[in-house]
Amino acid sequence: MIEHPGSHDKGFTLIELIIVIAIIGILAAIAVPQYSAYKTRAYNAAAIEDLKAAEAAQELYFTEHYTYCANTSTLIGATYMLFLSDGVRLTIDPMNTNTHGFLMRTRHQSGDVTYRLQGPGGRVVEE
Fold it and tell me: Which of the four, 18, 82, 108, 122, has the lowest number of CB atoms within 10 Å?
């Protein structure tokens, strides 16, 4: 801040304002992509957790029916304690679901990865 002799006006010069705006722009250019990547990772994590919860629901279903469930809507709800996160889509492959196992996939609508789990006892993998 420059003060001119004999003047009582105080303020910032144009150069100082331009430098501050440039610094804010640089920080925003770094922060915004990082925040976007953080959100995407969080959406993907929600899809993984819901897939693991669906595996537990499949095991509960199996203890009652001696086969795995091929219908997503049957598993969702209080009976098998499966509640999907907002934006997560769970699909069960009916051609690969029977008394021996199941194949399920999840993806969050704002995520960038589809996850697959072949059960029982499988692990979550990216497709």
Answer: 18
Tell me what percent of the residues of the chain surpass a pLDDT of 70.
93
Asked if residue 5 belongs to a domain, the reply is no
Number of domains observed in the structure of the chain:
1
- Per the CB < 8 A criterion, the answer to whether 55 and 68 are in contact is no
Q: How many residues does the chain have?
A: 127
The domain of 100 spans: 14-126
Greater pLDDT, 107 or 122: 107
Q: What is the reported pTM?
A: 0.77
- Rounded-to-5 percentages of helix, strand, coil across the chain: 45, 20, 35
In a domain, 78, yes or no: yes
* List of residues 6+ apart from 74 with CB closer than 8 A: 61, 80
**Per-residue confidence at 33, pLDDT binned at 50, 70, 90?**
confident
Residue 1 belongs to some domain of the structure: no
Residue 41 maps to a domain? yes
